[in-house]
Write a structure and sequence with these properties.
With 245 residues, the protein is of the alpha/beta class. It has 11 helices and 7 strands.
């Protein structure tokens, strides 16, 4: 059974950006694994990190990341995928103190890409994926950027589908494409998708829907506007399922 490994910065990125193709691959007999990098619980969050959960209606004492990991398990079940949660902390716990900082250049003292490298490398050795899926980092979120940097350091032998980061790709206020020159060297391809499964998976991230889409109805509208399409940049030779899209 071929194995596809999606390397998701956050608990929702893979489903939002590539959930359709992941579900389609699972339905076609692939073993699909979604490994999310920045999922660690940080005790007693303060300042901006705390606001990132309270502004979503969660009380200060809630274990925000535990709630999000549970959502991810439900989302991956909807996709037919297995979930892996890696123990790195999100940017608000690493010295980023405002939303604007999350979409600026990574801090010079932020070594999360090295930590991500060390966390992903064993997965590649153990799973030996036939295909990797990962973000292009469109929008420039620091955690997405550092995920790409980690993958660059790993230089995996498997082909990579670099997905278009949704919903950032739709927003005029987050147009940054820090890896545009690299991505331009890879052909862009339409992917086969399962839109219904993607919608079910995205809807599982209940804590994020208000912030990202204005609620479940906004999610439905945003997904409908894509007509079920997903596109990615292909590095390497495509597996048969993707090549046939």
């Amino acid at each position: 059974m071929p194995l596809a490994l999606a390397l998701s910065p956050h608990l929702d990125d893979a489903a939002f950006s590539a959930g359709g193709v992941l579900a389609r691959m699972a339905g076609e007999g692939w073993d699909v694994v979604v490994a999310t990098i920045f999922t660690a619980t940080v005790a007693n969050p303060q300042g901006f990190a705390l606001a990132c959960q309270t502004d979503k209606g969660l009380p200060p004492e809630a274990d925000y990341m535990a709630i999000r990991r549970a959502e991810d398990l439900d989302a991956c079940a909807a996709l037919g995928a297995r979930a892996v949660h890696l123990p790195l902390s999100e940017a608000p716990h690493r010295g980023y103190h405002a939303a604007a900082e999350l979409f600026a250049a990574p801090r010079s003292d932020d070594m999360a890409h090295l930590q991500a490298h060390d966390a992903i490398a064993p997965l590649l050795r153990e799973m030996r994926p036939d295909l990797i899926l990962a973000p292009q980092a469109i929008g420039g979120h620091v955690d997405h950027v550092l995920t790409v940097r980690a993958i660059q350091l790993l230089d995996p032998r498997a082909p990579i589908l670099w997905w278009r980061d949704f919903p950032y790709i739709t927003r005029a206020d987050t147009p940054r494409r820090p890896f545009e020159a690299m991505m331009a060297g890879f052909p862009e391809t339409d992917l086969p998708t399962d839109p219904a499964a993607k919608h079910a998976a995205c809807a599982a991230y209940a804590t994020q829907l208000g912030y990202q889409f204005g609620g479940p109805d906004g999610l439905a509208r945003a997904l409908a506007a894509t007509d079920g399409r997903e596109r990615a940049r292909l590095q390497g030779e495509a597996p048969v399922l993707v090549r046939a899209a």
